[in-house]
Amino acid sequence: MKGQTQSFLEDLHGLFYFNAQDARDIMLRFHSEMGLGLTGKESSLKMIPSFVRRPKGKEKGSFLAIDLGGTNIRVLAVSLDGKGRAEPLAISRYPISHEAMTGTGDMFFDFIAESMESFFKEHQIDAKRLQGLGFTFSFPVVQSSIASGRLISWTKGFSASGVEGEDVVELLTRALKRRNMGFIEVAALINDTVGTLVAKSYANPACDMGVILGTGTNAAYPEKTGRITKYKGPRHPDEMIINIEWGGFNKIRRNIYDETLDRGSFNPGEQRMEKMVSGMYLGEIARLIIMDMVKEGLLLNPHIHHAFSEPYRLTAEHLSLAEQGQFFNELGLIQVPQEDREIILEVFRLVSGRSARIAATAISAVITWMDKKMDSSHVIAIDGSLFEKYPNYRENMEAMLREIFGDSAGKIKLEKEMDGSGIGAAITAAIASSPWDKSLIARLSSLRCR
User: Fold this and answer.
1) CA distances (Å), origin 244, targets 254, 306, 344
2) What's the CA gap between 256 and 283, in Å, rounded?
3) Beta bridge partners of 90
4) Which of 4, 23, 321, 420 is most buried, judged by most C-beta within 10 A?
5) Residue 223: which of 196, 193, 246, 243 has the closest Cα?
6) CA 87 to CA 34: how far, in whole Å?
7) pTM of the shown model
8) Where are the alpha helices (DSSP H) in 134-266?
9) Which pLDDT tens digit goes with each residue over 183-204?
10) Residues 284-305: pLDDT tens digits?
11) Left (φ > 0), alpha (ψ -120 to 50) or beta: where does 209 sit?
12) What sign does the CA torsion over 408, 414, 415, 421 have?
């Protein structure tokens, strides 16, 4: 490897790596933002009350769920046995068209209603026999009850008009009525992180955090209601799950590639941490680095310039394939010299490694907020393709946890929760049907969160 290229990679390593002390500094800033968000003051962490507690594990019945979080919508029917076991009875996935993502709000919610109609026909399900619908809507929402919430802003490339500032449950309810399905009651509105936490804790009460590490990234945890001073409702039960919306955390150092990506994004200045961690952006960060190396004459093969010239053509899936030895053939880069391949792979590892270390640092911040002295064990439920499929991603997270906590890192268990956001929605619908939660919902009309 030529000296100039080696020097570039060493500088790049400095831009993308941070040590345990850097992580602890981030954790302190994260705690500060959490505190501000819980009081209703200006913060890059929205700390949104979900109006739902963790399940008891005794909830029982059959419920419908809609899981909307990425480029697909999933519709599920789920059976709860009242003993901590949730069993999907039927699941269907429907790709969301670009027109639905970027058209009008009515088009978008009509697509959801049509998908539900197709689901019932496909599986021959009598919707009237299901007890309620849980709606996982994985975008920033300010909720006023367990079954209502206004969209703050779209993320992940969605931009359907007439939705921001509106109650998404009301918009879905109208769409259902337009499809003659007005008998379906939306019992609960949740975020995918809340769903992941709820799904895991239904079977394992030790679970106290849900995390998404996929196309987007976010987390949720149970907070003592006495610490949520912006919450003006009843103080029973003692805890409420908080949707952190940690993708917006902005007290974190960026480098030149982060800033370049941000300027060219559809939401410049927003979602700073998400743009450093989530699968939607990792490929683009790597592409910007590679094009910089081409410009500097460090990668001379003409096929490389062609393969990486188009913004967002390089995806997190490509990075993952590269670490499994399948990437170069995928993009037609068969004749790239071995030395250039190794350089490109090193770039990919730096980008994905930083993502994993930031994610682990954010998890550490939430854990120490709940348990300052690390007296207890913590199960972290994680859903998303980065954690599930990306080579060495989990290992990089666990290494960061050991650097931060030493031997106490053994108290933290990172556990995969497949389909948590969908199953969690059904469980949350069951929670909403409990006597206490029904009483709460009836009184929520007078509740406000600043």
Assistant:
1) 21, 40, 34
2) 16
3) 77
4) 420
5) 243
6) 35
7) 0.88
8) 168-178, 192-203, 256-263
9) 898 999 998 899 999 999 999 9
10) 999 999 999 999 999 877 778 8
11) beta
12) positive
